[in-house]
Amino acid sequence: MKIFLVLFFITCCAFGNLHAQVQDKPNLDSLVNAVVKLEKEMYQVNLNLYQSKRQLKTGIFVATLGYTVTIIGGQLLGTNPELGEALLYTGGAIGIAGTVVLVKGFNKISLGPPQKPRHY
After folding, report:
1. Angle at which helices 81-109 and 2-76 pack, to 10 degrees?
2. What sections of the protein cross the membrane (predicted)?
3. Quick check: is 48 in a domain?
4. pLDDT digits (tens, 9 = 90+) for 51-76
């Protein structure tokens, strides 16, 4: 009788551990899937930052150039009104174009509002 109880106990423990290992596998798969999803999201964020870096630098340069031309045009209004007026309009247009490039660069950075994490 003691041998039967010992064998029964060992069998229960063996099947109990087997059942626990089977349940751990789906949790491991979901963990791997979560890590892969996070890696994809991080790649997308890094790609957006990389692509927007050049566009932001270009926008800053163009806007600065445009507003510099505008200032020069304003300075020339007293001595050479025709050239000064032309530079004012041209510089303003270049500055606005640079600002538009900047805004597009900032829009590349933004992925939208963050989503609430799902709790399992």
Report:
1. 180
2. 86-106
3. yes
4. 888 889 999 999 999 999 999 999 99
Mean pLDDT of the chain: 80
Which residue from 75, 62, 74 is spatially nearest to 103, judged by alpha carbons?
Answer: 62
Amino acid identity at 108: K
Task: Report the number of distinct structural domains present in the chain.
Answer: 1
Determine the Cα–Cα distance for residues 10 and 2; give it in Å rounded to an integer.
12
Read off φ and ψ for residue 110, nearest 5 degrees: -75, 130
Assigned domain for 86 exists: yes
Q: CB neighbours (10 Å) of residue 61?
A: 12
Show the domain range for 61. Answer: 34-109
To which residue do tokens 């709790």 refer? Answer: 119
Residue 103, in any domain of the structure? yes
Alpha helices in the chain (DSSP H): 2-76, 81-109
